[in-house]
Specification:
Helix content: 40-55%
CATH class of the largest domain: Alpha Beta
Number of strands: 8
Number of helices: 10
Order of helices and strands: HHHEEHHEEEHHHEEEHH
CATH architecture of the largest domain: 2-Layer Sandwich
Radius of gyration: 23 Å
Length: 246
């Protein structure tokens, strides 16, 4: 079981303090903000200074972050870490299930497809990244609702147009709330069986990736996914524990 390393946590908290205070700080001030002894804080700031993340003014001996952290963050952002995560996660889900896999986020009162990995089977379901869908008609949308705090979830449900795209789409807000709550109390794998597109069955999970609420789904023809629903749920249950932050 992974353990939290207090020293690493303290180092990150140093930058959170600088971001909050918006000014240079003395060792004593930082020690007070971090609830550390002055000597321990001095060692921490010295380490960060030697690594090039902090500078110290010659006269007042105040500490302030250098641009190194920003440069590193920009380099990470340039690689689009969420795209890398989605690509690897969807590849795993597609390979294990044999069906297409999708990643989506909430965009206003819709779900936007962020990435898709299509199945190699002749009969498969695929959506292009950027496609927007009704929240209540998709497993991705339901999973994202399920992962929200209750107040946020209820506010979004109230804002949904509740448009029916198939005869099986949920159009009543109370029914949607009841399904979300029931699934949250169960396996937390959210299902949309021919609710968004006729003949298509999807199962999804959701959680935080970095600071972004993200949903992943397995989706395919109804007859095939129905026959393998237990296996798909097992795949997604294991993926939720592995892919998302606790």
């Amino acid at each position: 079981m992974p353990q939290i390393i207090p020293t690493a946590q303290r180092a990150l908290q140093v930058f959170e303090v600088f971001a909050r205070e918006q000014r240079p700080l003395t060792n004593s001030e930082m020690a007070r903000y971090l609830d550390l002894a002055d000597s321990s804080c001095s060692d921490l700031l010295f380490t960060l200074r030697q690594a090039g993340f902090l500078l110290r003014t010659p006269k007042s001996r105040h500490f302030h972050p250098t641009g190194r952290l920003l440069n590193i963050a920009q380099g990470i952002a340039a690689s689009d870490s969420l795209q890398i995560f989605a690509s690897e996660a969807l590849e795993i889900l597609m390979r294990q299930s044999g069906e297409s896999a999708m990643c989506g986020h909430i965009d206003g009162n819709k779900v936007k497809i962020f990435a898709c990995k299509e199945s190699s089977r002749a009969l498969r379901y695929v959506l292009r990244p950027g496609t927007v869908l009704e929240v209540q008609g998709t497993s991705l949308g339901k999973a994202l609702l399920g992962a929200m705090e209750p107040d946020e979830r209820n506010a979004l449900i109230d804002a949904l147009p509740m448009i029916a795209t198939t005869p099986k789409t949920i159009t009543q807000r109370d029914a949607l709330r009841a399904e979300i709550e029931a699934t949250n109390q169960g396996n937390k794998c959210f299902i949309a069986k021919e609710e968004g597109v006729e003949g298509v069955f999807a199962i999804a999970i959701a959680g935080k990736v970095g600071d972004r609420l993200t949903a992943l789904s397995i989706v395919g023809p109804t007859h095939r996914v129905s026959q393998n629903i237990d296996a798909c749920i097992k795949i997604l249950t294991e993926a939720r524990a592995e892919f998302f932050e606790s």
